[in-house]
Amino acid sequence: MAKREELIVGLDIGTTKICAVVGETTAEGIDVIGVGTSPSRGLRKGVVVNIDHTVNGIVKAIEEAELMAGCEITNVYSGIAGSHIRGINSRGMVAVKDKEVERYDIDRVIDAAKAIPLPTDREIIHILPQEYIIDEQDGIKEPLGMAGVRLEAKVHIVTGAVSAAQNLVTCANKAGLQVESIVLQPLASAVAVLSEDEKELGVALVDVGGGTADIAVFSDGSIVHTSVIPLGGNHITNDIAVGLRTPADEAEKIKIKYGCAMTSMVSKEENIEVPSVGGRQPRVLSRQILAEIIEPRVEEIFQLTHTEIQKSGYEELLASGVVITGGSTLMEGMPEMAEEVLGMPVRRGYPQGVGGLTDVVKSPAYSTGVGLVLHGLKRTDDMRWKRKNNGRFGAVFARIWDWIVANIV
């Protein structure tokens, strides 16, 4: 059984499914050793609307992951999404006291940048540095140790509803879990599916889930825009259920098995069997009719995505194009429809950067879960580095104090 401190668990609480991904740290990085999924019945558009149903889903997903990994899970990194999420670009400026930038100066300039007016019902989820400017020299990613008298910071601040974050933590706590950190879902997905080159050249990530489509725009290696569209795979399923007059559960199965986002990609001769409601006999319909129902909704999702990318002001700077991920992007024709609407190269994003059960998690549906594990690994490494250096500096100061006591006092 793996030691608890070696485990990092990502908990993706989505609108259609709850997914737990267990990672074990190794010398090479991290291996996925367990995965658990459960249907999600307590969320609507990424926000908790029924705590009991959400808790039950979390418990089932965690139990399945524990069984596969052979461990006990107590701590998790949880994702957050929903139409309440807002992204703001801000900047701050401070004077460098000793003419050389120290960690204290960086902390102060970040504090200055995040000093924005917020309503009482909102809180800051992330403060993401974009670049630092020292004495009008811009483009600096790591200012520590550099000489200068004025330090500026450009940051991207992600805010969310206090109640939404509290409800997620409450659900996890009721399931017997401690939440290490809450992470914006498209940021987690970006860690799993985007390369550093794509982020440097400029790329937009579109994570299409069940209830929402989450967007994150990167340029020069930093995030510059985040937004959430309240449309997702569930809306496609509802359209199919109404259009084909079939139960929602059957509509979901039909979408997964036969769905296509572009009518032009479907043969007119291809037929599908559609179950009816109220005990009526199943009907045989053309698959093209199904595509005609799906296409307008997918087109709407990507049109709204295009509007958000234009709103960011970085549309012309996305040399790497767009990466789509999330369970809903598995549907045939999604990249082709996205390319047609967005007018730029599009690829489907798959999780990478982990070992172990890669064949199990190599699907856009697991991008957020794997990304949460990778985020947890980076956070753990940062904390270890700080502890190590704090200890090293502490020892130095102790030797200096001993010398002062022996020679001066």
What's the structural blueprint in terms of helices and strands?
Layout: E1 7-13, E2 17-25, E3 30-39, E4 43-44, E5 47-48, H1 51-69, E6 75-80, E7 86-95, H2 103-113, E8 122-134, E9 137-140, E10 150-161, H3 162-174, E11 178-184, H4 185-193, H5 196-201, E12 203-208, E13 213-219, E14 222-229, H6 233-244, H7 248-258, E15 271-274, E16 283-286, H8 287-312, E17 322-325, H9 334-342, E18 346-348, E19 355-356, H10 358-361, H11 367-407
Parallel strand pairs: 1-6, 3-19, 6-11, 12-17, 17-18
Antiparallel strand pairs: 1-2, 2-3, 4-5, 7-10, 8-9, 8-10, 12-13, 13-14, 15-16
Helix pairs in contact: 1-3, 4-11, 6-7, 6-8, 8-9
The CATH architecture of the domain at 86-160 would be 2-Layer Sandwich
The CATH topology of the domain at 86-160 is what? Dna Ligase, domain 1
- In which range does the helix fraction lie? 25-40%
In CATH, what is the class of the domain at 86-160?
Alpha Beta
Given helix and strand content, the structural type is: alpha/beta
Report the principal-axis shape: globular
Distance between the termini: 54 Å
Largest sheet: 6 strands, mixed
Q: Strands across the major sheet, in which order?
A: 11-6-1-2-3-19
Overview of this structure, please?
- This protein has 409 residues and is of the alpha/beta class.
- The protein has a domain of 75 residues: 2-Layer Sandwich (Dna Ligase, domain 1).
- Helix content is 39%, strand content 29%.
- The strands form five sheets. Strands 11-6-1-2-3-19 form a six-stranded mixed sheet, sandwiched between helices. It has a five-stranded mixed sheet with strand order 14-13-12-17-18, with helices on both faces.
- Helix 4 packs across helix 11.
- The longest helix is centred in the last third of the chain and has 41 residues.
- The C terminus is likely disordered.
